[in-house]
Write a structure and sequence with these properties.
Layout lengths: L7 H35 L5 E7 L8 H25 L20 E5 L14 H13 L7 E6 L12 E5 L3 E7 L16 H5 L2 H11 L15 E2 L5 H6 L8 E2 L2 H7 L3 H4 L11 E11 L4 E10 L3 E10 L9 E5 L6 E7 L4 E10 L4 E2 L11 E6 L1
Parallel strand pairs: 1-2, 1-3, 3-5, 6-7
Antiparallel strand pairs: 4-5, 8-9, 9-12, 10-11, 10-13, 13-14, 13-15
Protein name: Peptidase M6-like domain-containing protein
Length: 381
């Protein structure tokens, strides 16, 4: 093989080739960074939208009336959530969570369904699905990741839509479907949750279902706090029937506040909202202390993501019903350990343990979101 100094032509070829390679590298970097920038820009704060839904054969109530009433609902909900979060020591970045119109009022979209109210035909399809399809087709509104509070109007009282539902999580957004009651009167943002008018309008039930849209599970009241019923607890009638105190009041429980405090709607930060962190609870112990009549829960959390709080639900066997379970909150120390006391437990039951992460994720096993993913710890004393 001949060796020696490369010819000028060959050197020129090498130089041109090097510049080409460099150009390709620069172009690749630019495209890669641009793509990353697009992804970053695509992470938007979830929107919360109020919708009035009517079946195809039902005319909505006067527009000015329902706009005013649904603004009252929205303002009450915003005030309730903001106050509840601040009461538990959180500082939500966003208080106004609902979409506004050009005048600063809460925006309400009217959606007319494809099916009539007659014979209950409109219930044959999920109302949330009917609303989503219409919003996409007729209004060009993005559905994924946002929240929809859907009020169904099928006529003035006593006619009503009697199915209240809600579902969601911090990644996918959520929806709540409930009845719109057309009655005179005004909801004041500072009024108690339970008043004669608010009860007729099912105010607590409507906000309760919207709580499910955020991913909140049922969590009942701690009567000893003197705050009344919880938002995610039993209906007003059942709470009152058990002779519970402070019947006009309702509050956001500590566990609900911990879950909501990192939801992107309230933090204004959608970064990594799609991430479901690895979650393994290890070395969990639930020891009963007879002297103090408490369960001392201790454990360690294995995860790959910044954790906010651990939530422990005491689901005792002798509870009144599923709406009466109690929630407790623990911080996680630098060694990934947590501990919490459960006062006055039942003799038998189970603890449901989940982690709340700083991106809004709420999971007990790292493979699924919400209360059904909880790590279960049975107890019997």
């Amino acid at each position: 093989m001949a060796t020696g100094t490369p010819s000028p032509a060959f050197s020129s070829f090498q130089l041109r080739d090097s510049w080409k390679i460099l150009a390709y590298v620069v172009l690749w970097c630019v495209l890669t960074l641009s793509a990353a920038d697009v992804v970053a820009q695509g992470a938007s704060i979830p929107e919360a939208q109020i919708v009035l839904f009517t079946p195809s054969d039902v005319q909505p109530p006067p527009r000015a009336g329902y706009l005013n009433r649904l603004n009252q609902f929205g303002l009450y909900a915003e005030q309730f959530f903001h106050q509840g979060l601040t009461d538990w020591g959180y500082s939500p970045a966003r208080k106004e969570i609902f979409n506004r119109d050009g005048d600063g009022n809460i925006a309400v979209i009217h959606v007319k369904g494809e099916l009539p109210a007659a014979g209950g035909a409109y219930k044959k399809q999920w109302i949330s699905r009917q609303v989503h399809d219409k919003l996409k087709r007729d209004h060009g509104i993005k559905i994924a990741g946002n929240l929809y509070w859907i009020f169904v109007y099928v006529g003035d009282p006593p006619v009503r839509h009697d199915s209240y539902r809600g579902s969601g999580n911090s990644k996918d957004g959520g929806w709540a479907v409930l009845n719109y009651t057309n009655l005179p009167g005004k909801i004041s943002p500072r009024s108690p949750m339970v008043t004669p008018l608010n009860d007729k309008l099912t105010l607590k039930g409507c906000i309760h279902e919207f709580g499910h849209a955020f991913g909140l599970p049922h969590i009942g009241p701690k009567v000893e706090l003197g705050k009344g019923n919880t938002l995610m607890g039993p209906v007003n009638r059942i709470y009152a029937s058990h002779k519970m105190p402070n019947r006009t009041q309702a509050y956001l429980s500590e566990a609900s506040a911990a879950i909501l405090s990192t939801h992107p709607v309230f933090t204004g930060d959608p970064t990594a909202r799609s991430t479901l962190p690895k979650t393994n609870f290890r070395q969990v112990k639930a020891d009963y202390d007879r002297k103090s009549h408490t369960i001392e829960v201790r454990g360690r959390l294995e995860t790959d993501f910044p954790v906010h709080r651990v939530v422990v639900i005491d689901d005792r066997d002798d509870k009144i019903g599923g709406y009466w379970v109690k929630g407790f909150v623990a911080e996680v120390d630098p060694q990934s350990r947590f501990s919490v006391s459960i006062p006055n437990p039942g003799r038998k039951g189970q603890l449901k343990i989940l982690a709340v992460y700083k991106n809004g994720a709420f999971t007990g096993n790292g493979t699924k979101r919400g209360i059904d993913s909880a790590t279960l710890v049975p107890y019997r004393f």
